[in-house]
Amino acid sequence: MKPLSLLIEILIILGVTIKTIEAEKHNERRKERNVTTQVSVNQTQQFLSHILERRKLSKVISKKENLLDEKKNHHKIRIKGIQNKDLLKRSKNHLKTHAKKNFTDEGDQLFKMGTKILQQSKSQKQKAEAYLLFAKAADMGNLKAMEKMADALLFGNFGTQNITAAIQLYESLAKEGSYKAQNALGFLSSYGIGMEYDQAKALIYYTFGSAGGSMMSQMILGYRYLSGINVLQNCEVALNHYKKVADYIADKLEKSEGIPVEKVRLTERPENLSSNSEILDWDIYQYYKLLAERGDVQIQVSLGQLHLIGRKGLDQDYYKALYYFLKAAKAGSANAMAFIGKMYLEGNAAAPQNNASAFKYFSMAANKGNAIGLHGLGLLYFYGKGVPVNYSEALKYFQKAAEKGWPNAQFQLGFMYYSGSGVWKDYKIAFKYFYLASQSGQPLAIYYLAEMYATGTGVLRSCRTAVELYKGVCELGHWAEKFLTAYFAYKDGNIDSSLIQYALLAEMGYEVAQSNSAFILESKKAKILEKEKMYPMALLLWNRAAIQGNAFARVKIGDYHYYGYGTKKDYQTAATHYSIAADKYHSAQAMFNLAYMYEHGLGIAKDIHLARRLYDMAAQTSPDAHIPVFFALMKLETVHMLQDILLFNFTMRWKWMKLDNILGPYWDLFVIGLIVAVLIFLLRNRRE
Length: 688
Description:
It contains 34 helices and no strands.
């Protein structure tokens, strides 16, 4: 393995100093995002020099031994004691193998320790400790640790982002058969980040990655075959790739390991990003805590839920979740009782698995008619947890909860009819309940609907529908956690780190990531791509997002063709995209743009009446369009009136049609300015 120089560089980059922080854990995490802690330079240098000396010594010894072996091979002499020499050589080789095994075992142990710390980490300090262990394990040749280090370099997790070093490490790992490295090299080749832009090579890397077991490569290939990106569009091949990933995700979801992740759109107004509804602002969180302490039951339950699964940017904290649920349960909240039952049923650090406690709290909630409590009792009877298996009782409770609209109960009913558990198999009824649950976003219901469409079970087979459903399930994978880290990196000003994470998710087919990546690229703040490549790449990503139904992206494509960003100016194509956005998505911006093009005859036949109609439609569609539409119509009517007067009285004297030549190409802006000035003058005179 040749990554010694890389590992030394990684360790220098990764070095972190552990500082004591006494603020609350939530405040610590939010404030620490801007801070990359660093270990003292002297300590790091001593550690590195020790490694370097040890590795150099090892190389010298190995070199001498190789020379000695070569000499022995060149001067083989048959003597009677050759058996003894062979025995000595075998003993020596055995000692070497044993030492190497101990070295490998130590690396594995360090990697496991680092992984455990990382999984339990709630602060930057703990994460830094984990990555130091990964660095040591990587130096000992642990491939998994090296993968972690390469990812850290690529995404800039704990220090300066170094894509060149990451690529060298990935290439070294790929030679060892690492499917994660192959996936990463495919991704970098597909964007031309740090490597030559080569879609053919990217496809080869993804193919090898998927063959090696990379779920991300499987998902990328599924999306490519679904959309026909550099491959022939093939629904069946896409179905095969997506199904493998969906099976993996469904297995995790059945074990309650799936955690929903908020996907923030950067295309929203900048002033709204800091208080995005997808991420709970620190001040609002403090206010909610105050209300909860003052006895607001609804807020107590909400905070308990957020901490239970770690949503809205909050840490997953079972102790805090149980604390708020208990407070709300004492106040009589049936939802809180049901969630306490759920915690005891699944088991965690704050509430160890206890079927009796789960039954107690579920019963308390069910007696109040709570759907979650009824569903919980159904689960206990269905799986025989703390009570004998009783499908009839389970069916009864699931039906009661489903009637109240609880999607998990609807899914369980569908599953009972799908599998024939306690009832006769009935795929039509199963489909009905799966569909009802899927409308509320129940992921397992979506998965089983996909299974039914893929196999034609109880419904007419539809490859396209099955793929779309599988894709929705696949997007719940743990890799979606990068949405949060990418968003916080963007907020903290780490544009390159944010872009590289969004770009990877975009490659996997996430529409939100595609629009976010395009948004960052068109801002030209990123440094990991040449500026001349940014607009073409942004146009490509806007196009992919538009195909997936993003109206804003469709308007953006129109803008790019109108102004000639990343492509040639093409008013006709721009008008086509604006028309799609206006007709299909009722976009006020698209209507306004299209009206302007009809008014001036840009790429389409000039039509003042249609322009006037589109301006009115834009104003009716969005309140934000009222003022722009008012000025546009004022200008249009004024120009139209002046044009009529001048053409009627002074047709021969005034050459109205040559206004562009006389006043310049932006004469209409001067007219709008004149109208505004007249209005201000009239308003002032009226006040006086």
